[in-house]
Amino acid sequence: MLKPKVLEKLNEQIGRELYSSHLYLQMSGWCAAQGLDGCAAFLRTHSQEEMSHMLRLFDYVQQSDAQPLIPALDQPPHEFESVKDLFRQVHEHEKSITGWINELVQTTFEAQDYFTFNFLQWYVAEQHEEEALARTILDRLELIGLEGRGLYFFDADLGRLARGEKPESLFSGGGDQNA
Ligand code: OFO
């Protein structure tokens, strides 16, 4: 049986993962409108991953004999100054998610709910990967700038990541989209 404080925090996290899914889908729409099809595909895949993160929590709550509650969600932003601005927001968002996951883990520890504490370790590892990937993307963008062929190759590489293929050059040694 989940303690009320733990259940409340799990429901909040369900909302955040769902919001992440909406955010990345909306960002994918912006990229497609700019002709950045690789970025759009990457963000769409990422949106689906966030949906699966939400469902994992949703199912855990159900399996713990409680009813998950999806909170009301804000509308995600749909205008960005540039693709760099967009990926800066992705990185900031992932850092916030890490902070919330850590808070949630702390709550389970204080409540001595070691089942949920253990369940959440997957999210701790996942956030480490996601933050690293978002940082790598941002670093590459800062390196290549926003003009000319650099952006074209960057977009092509994000498309490869979305298809689970190896990026050609920009991401050698970088993160893993499926991590
Ligand atoms: Fe990218 O956040 Fe889910 O966990």
Protein architecture, described:
About 75% of the residues lie in helices and about 0% in strands. The protein is mainly α. The chain has one domain: Ferritin. The longest helix has 30 residues, at about 5-35. The chain is elongated, with a radius of gyration of 17 Å. Bound molecules: hydroxy diiron-OXO moiety. Hydroxy diiron-OXO moiety binds next to helix 1, helix 2, helix 3 and helix 5.
Short description:
The protein has 179 residues and is mostly helical. Helix content is 73%, strand content 0%.
**Number of structurally distinct domains:** 1
The CATH architecture assignment turns out to be: Up-down Bundle
Q: Any idea what the shape is?
A: elongated
Q: What's the pLDDT, averaged over the residues? A: 93
Class per helix and strand makeup: mainly alpha
Please give the number of β-strands.
Answer: 0
CATH homologous superfamily identity: Ferritin, core subunit, four-helix bundle
How many helical elements?
6
**H/E element string?**
HHHHHH
